[in-house]
Every structure is written in C-alpha cells, then in structure tokens.
Amino acid sequence: MVGSRDYAYYKEHAQDVKLDDITSSERNKNIIQKLRDGDSEFTSLYILDDDRNGEDDEFIVLEGDDLGWLGYFIGESKTLKLLRLSCNPPPPIGLLEGICRNRSIQSLEVKNEIADTTFLHLTPFFSNNKNLTSFTLGCDGMGSDLCAQYFVVALVKCDSLTHLCFEGGADGCQFGDDAFNNILRVLHSQSELERLSLNAHYTVGEGYATLSNTLRLGGMGKLRVLDLIYSDVDDEGLQSMVAGISHCRSLVELNLPSNNQITVTGLRTLSGFFQSESCRLESLGLGGVVMDDEGAIVLATGLATYKPLKHLDISGNDIGDEGIAALVSGLTIAANTSLETLRLSRNPFTIAGIRSLSTLIQSERSCLKLLDLGSIRNGDNEEVAVILANALTNNTSLMNLGLGYDISEARGVTFSKLLCDTSSINNIYSSNHTLEVIGDIEYDRETTNDEVLKYLVLNRNTRCLNPIDRGLVPMCKILIHHPDLTDMKPFYKWKLKVLPLMVKWFQKAGACQDYFEESVDVFQRRELSAMYKFIRGVPMLAADGYWSQQLKQIHVKKRNFEEVEKKQLLAILEKKRKLEEEEMQVLDRLSG
User: Fold this and answer.
1) What whole-number distance in Å separates Cα of residue 172 and Cα of residue 170?
2) Distance of alpha carbon 542 from alpha carbon 469, whole angstroms
3) Where are the beta strands (DSSP E) in 38-81?
C-alpha cells in the first residue's frame, strides 16, 4: 500500500508507470491520471479511508494503492488548491514527502490520526509553500505532546496563513494544557492571520489568558474573526478574552456558541466591552449559552450605546418576553441602523415577544435582512402571522423570515395578501416586494404553501434580474393579475399625457418577459392592448366632459334666475310693507 522510493525514481518513471498497478480502483486511477496530466479543473483532493459521498475527487485508500506515487503526483501538481487528509492509520512518509514538494495548495486539512513525527515531516511544506493560506487540524486522534511540539516548529515556519482552525473531537482537544498553551503562544508569529477557530477545545482559563496575552502584545494584528465554539469558555475565560480583544482593533466577529458556563457575570463583561471605544465588533454569536432574561437585559444595556453591530445570534437560550422587550428597547435606543441579522430561534418567548419585535420591524431605520424566530411558545400561529404581516407591510429590508412551522392555509392568506394585495393595481404596488424566504431557516426548509411560495420566488427571481431596481417586482405582479392594465379609469384624468408614460412603463416592464417566459411579440401585445383600451376610452371621456359642461351651464342659468326671482320678490315685499304703513297712517287719522 505504501511506496517508499526517492524523488529521482518517481520522476524517471512518472510517464511510464501503469496506473492500474499503483491504484486499487478506477476512481483512484482517474485521480492520479488527472494529477499527472495537470488537469486545470482538478483543484480539490480528499484522501479518505471510506467512501463518504462517492465524489470524483475522493481518493479512497485501500490495499493496492501506492501512496508514494500519490504523494509524488501531488507534489508535482500546479493546479491543486485544496488537500484533505482524513484516513487512518497516519499518512506514510512517502505521501508526506510528496506533499512537501507542492507549491500550489492553498488549503490543507489534516483530520486523521496523526503520528508523533507527522509535522516533523511536513515542516518543509509549511516553510516553502507561500500559497498556503488556510490550515485545519482535527485533533480527534491526537494525544501526543511531542506531536504538538513538532507542530509548533512547523507553524513558526509558516507566515502566509490567513485562516487557522483547530477542531476537537467528541472528547475535545487531546493535547495537554502545556502543549496547547505553547501553540497559542507562537500565534504571535502569524501576522497575516484573519480567522482563528478553536472549536471543541476544552482548555483551562490559563489557555485563554495565554491567547489574551498574545492579542494584548499585538500578535495577530490582522485578526478579524475569533471562533471559540463549544470550548468550555466560562466567565473567567471570557473576561480574559475581552481584555485581549480590546487591543485587537481589527476584530469584527466573535463567536462563542455552546459555551454554557457563561453567566450574567460574563455577559456583563461583554456588555461593558460594547460600551468601550475599543470595540469594533460587527458580528456576535452567543447561541446556546443558556442566557436568560437577566442576561438579555444586561446585553441590551451594552447594545443600547453600540451601533456598528450587524449580526447577532442568541438562539438556543432561555430568553423570554421580558428579555426580548429589553433587546428591542436597547436596539431602538441605539437607533441601530446596522443590524442585518437577528437569530432568536429556540427561545421560550411568547406572542408578547412577537409584539415587541414588531416595533423593531416597523421602524423606518430598520436594516434587518434576516429574522429567525423559530416556533413561538404558547402562541396562536394565526395571530402571529397577522402581527408579522402588519409589521412587514411597509418594511423594505427584511428578506428572510424564520418560522419554526409551515404556513397553513389560513396563515397563507395573510402572508399572500402581504406579498400581493390583488384588490387593485395601487394595492399591488404597495405590497411587500422584499421578502424572499419564509420558513425554517435553521434547517433550511422553505414554506410549502404554494400561493405564498409563488410570490416569494417572484420577489427573489426578479431581484436577481435587476438587483438595483426593486420596481420591477411590483410590475411583474401587476402584469400577473392585470395583464394589460385592465382598469383604465384611474388614468383618464391625465388624458393623452398618459400615453408616453404607458409606453415607458411597458419598456421597463419588458424585463418581466423572463419570468413569464413570453416572446417579445406576445409581450408587445400586452402593451398594444393596454393602449387600445385607453384610447378607446378617451372619446367616452370627451363625451362625458361635454355633457358635464352643459350641465354646469344650466346650473349657472338656474342660479341666475333664482337670484333675479329673489330680488323681484324682495321688491314686492318692500312695496307691500310701504302700503301697509300708509294704510295704518290713514286708519289712525280716521280714529282720531
């Protein structure tokens, strides 16, 4: 299975060796053939010990595979960009020596059982391959501190990494504390590092203090993302980390999910960091840290004075209605115009929390593009749909709405009307044309309600046609329900001035042809039909105008006649009054 010859031998026989003799399967043979031929499309190689996905780039190591030859062709490759080693037993020296000659690999993933001397043999690869930017080390089968020492030597030799990831297994990283601390200490040499991931590394507080000290001293000056996922970070560890990252002005993303030892004390430290001038975070992941209402209130205090945050994940916690209300209040106080993603699924808030969130959605300053709510506890899903639909009526930013349940027929009517109110052309235009996904975002399940899905897909596809001008979306919806602008009466008041506007409207709406899958001729018939209906209605408009004018003139004559009649009546009454006065005077004299 393992070839062990010198480089000169491989080079001399490379073109003549029979691939059937050094491989165990047709797929492995094809892989070596592509490497030998320099296939420009063959850029990824996965060396595995079992058939994972049946892909063409998976080399499954079996009896009959000469890994020395595989290593040689890897070393000679100029097109290979990604290499993953995920096979047991540890890779043989012949394979490692071949890898060390490669200069094209940009991403190396070592996830198999590692021998003590593996990194001793890989050191030349790290020091000589200046194209290497990403390295992932799976520690599931690694328990030797000697191996860690050799890895430190290899890491010091490499100055081109931008992404370094340590992935622990089910029992966490099996390096000893001292060995792992030594690895953390040499990270100061990684001046180009932009992302550091320590996943499932159950290190003690001293480890986080070591990493914090590296950051404080200016190491990893370009670090933008720090992942500490499922790594037993507690309050003390978080305090150490905050002390370090406060000196790292380039850090914009901090992920701390599944660290369930973080309490209100740790969150208070983090909240204080948000209120400091040194904070530059744009993304914060706190999913699954068992944050309750008190913790949410503490976090909201920090967010109330911090505007740059774009992404916040606090899913999988214990946040109820009080905590949700505090977060909404904090974001509102901050007039937060940057928050684009808010993940709240798997929290026990009820419909009262939805009402609080609706005020955030309705805010004119809202920039939310994704809101993941999950299932609502003790809530009437029909009422939830109505609250959300009302909040989204005038929202022009939210594109993804996460609900932990599918949309029923009743809820479908509510959301369908939100997306396209077909009662009139004006109401269609005023509908929501931004929302593109409604469903269970966490599990990537979109709604199965056909009517709602139709409009969501239309919003999504039309945006792809023209990502700058959203006005195309309502045009397509109008043409679905009013193929040739059926009701012309609203346009009559502009008379013939509307014709050039109508021509321009249809020219712009021509992009909708791709959605309707119509030919140019068929679409032009819509335009001609609309113009014909308008022109046909114009004479009726003129006739109505003539008789309206005649009626106005009659009303004027009638008013004039009534005015004359009124004056004549007043004159008669005045004469009658004078005659009555004269009559009274005559009667007075007769009686006297």
Assistant:
1) 6
2) 37
3) 44-48, 58-60
Q: What angle do CA 384, 385, 389 make, to 5 degrees?
A: 120
Residue type at 404 in one-letter notation? G
**H/E segment holding residue 121:** helix 118-128
| pLDDT per residue as tens digits for the range 190-225 | 999 999 998 876 555 578 888 898 888 877 889 999
CA distance 105 to 124: 13
d(CA 358, CA 351): 10
Is there a contact between 174 and 139 (Cβ–Cβ < 8 Å)? yes
Residue pair 278/308 in contact by the 8 Å Cβ criterion: no
Residue 586's CB is within 10 A of a number of other CB atoms, namely: 9
Distance CA 351, CA 383 (A): 8
Is 157 in contact with 184 (CB distance < 8 Å)? Answer: no
Longest Cα separation, the chain: 161
Percent of the chain at pLDDT > 70 equals 87
Cα distances (Å, whole numbers) of residue 463 to 339, 364, 401, 459, 469: 22, 22, 17, 6, 8
Distance in angstroms (rounded) separating the CA atoms of residues 6 and 10: 7
pLDDT at 139: 62
Distance, in Å, from the CA atom of 300 to the CA atom of 358, rounded to the nearest integer, reads: 17
Residue 551: Cβ-neighbour burial (10 angstroms; 0-12, 13-18, 19+): exposed
181 or 252, higher pLDDT: 252
H helices then E strands: how many in the chain?
22, 16
Residue showing tokens 């939310």: 368
Residues 426, 481: contact at Cβ < 8 Å? no
Q: What share of the chain is helix, strand, coil (3-state, %, to 5)?
A: 50, 10, 40
Angstrom distances, CA of residue 580 to CA of 126, 433, 572, 577: 128, 80, 12, 5
Using the structure block, give the residue that is written with the tokens 């609250």.
387
Half-sphere exposure of 126 (CA within 13 A, CB side): 23
- As given in the structure block, the two tokens for residue 114 are 């590692």
Q: Is the peptide bond before 90 cis (omega within 30 degrees of 0)?
A: no
Please tell me the distance from the alpha carbon of residue 444 to that of residue 438, in angstroms, as a whole number. 10
* Residues sharing a CB contact under 8 Å with residue 1, sequence separation 6 or more, in sequence order: 61, 62, 63, 64, 65, 66, 67
Catalogue the E-assigned strands of 260-333: 283-285, 311-313
CA distance 316 to 290: 7
For 433-480, what is each residue's pLDDT tens digit? 999 999 887 777 787 788 888 899 888 887 776 666 667 888 888 888
The answer to whether 333 and 307 are in contact (CB under 8 A) is no
- The whole-number pLDDT of residue 546 equals 47
Strands (E), 200-249: 225-227
Q: Would strands 445-446 and 437-440 be described as parallel, antiparallel, or unpaired?
A: antiparallel
Tally of residues, the chain: 592
Q: What Rg value do the Cα atoms of the chain yield, rounded?
A: 38
Residues 6+ apart with CB under 8 A from 176: 145, 148
